[in-house]
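Table S2 (text version). Query chain:
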Amino acid sequence: MFDEKSIDFLRRLTESFGPSGFEREAARIIKEYMKPYSDDILTDKLGSIVFVKRGSVERPHVLLAGHIDEVGFVVSGIDENTGFLTFNTLGGWWDQVLLSQRVVVRTEKGDIHGVIAAKPPHLLTDEERQKPVDRRNMYIDIGVTSAKEAMEAGVKVGDPVIPWSPFMLVNNGRVAMGKAFDDRMGAFVIMEALRRIKDNNVNHLNTIYAAATVQEEVGARGAQTVAHIVDPDVCIVVEVDIAGDVPGIKPSEAPTKMGKGPSICTYDSSMIPNQPLKEFVIKVARESGIPLQLSQIARGGTDAGRIHISRAGCPSIVLGVPTRHIHSHVSLVNLEDAENAVKLLIELVKRFDKETVEGFTAI
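Corresponding structure-token output:
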């Protein structure tokens, strides 16, 4: 399982400030942590960062990608009379998970804490009580009483906002709880795998490109630029998977369960995975004694949706860590699932030689 150094890295990474388009703080944390384990560090011009680990041969190029942007918000206006902030979303939110949640607004003068609020229940009409509150009727209260006060505090239109949600371990340290697991948990798994490959001098007949991509939540934009830089021959995107073991979700909607191992996505709306690669992953997991779940999602996509159609195409698959309550202020992950994802990733990279990778696209 993960050592104290790894858990501290995960804590700093998930608590860092980094909604889509504002990922620099998270990228710097990863860069500092990964310098000792990388032969080279590349960047695109959007903010993604790629750590290179050379094996005994250059090709194939193995791209491991996990995005580091989190769902968040951006200030859209400041009420002249009250100083309350209106906001738009960065990434997908369901309005009903927003009310009464604490947030952090990053301004030119520093971070400001606030809360997403709406009309108190005492003032709601019977008709209003029966309707969900629309985000357009919500506001962020930062404790000021006028637009002048808000602007004096440094707030302006376009400032980014994230959930405030400290990282913690629960269930005797087996489960992590916090924000931004989508998809800093995926990035963490990739970086931990690269760290172990370096520390244990694991032989790999390829070049590994471990990428922390940006702006996935607003259209997988960093994935496109990273794929252009890396020119990958095979790609594994490491993501969170929607754990369906919660009330109200049918197994056909989200098949995976927390604590039952990582998953591979057999279908989503952005990519049908390369089938020989999919079968190869299942075979390696079985041979290695690593539990693996099969998943799918009818709506939504990942960085793999862009990467698999880059240049002439790239055989790709999504390795998932089952996660409860994604795209909210607080998610939960079983760390054993993440550990098994690291192990599987290493076993796959060890086997990605030229002949094997070429076999994924042979006709």
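Notes on Table S2: The mean pLDDT is 96. Residues 181-199 form the longest helix (19 residues).
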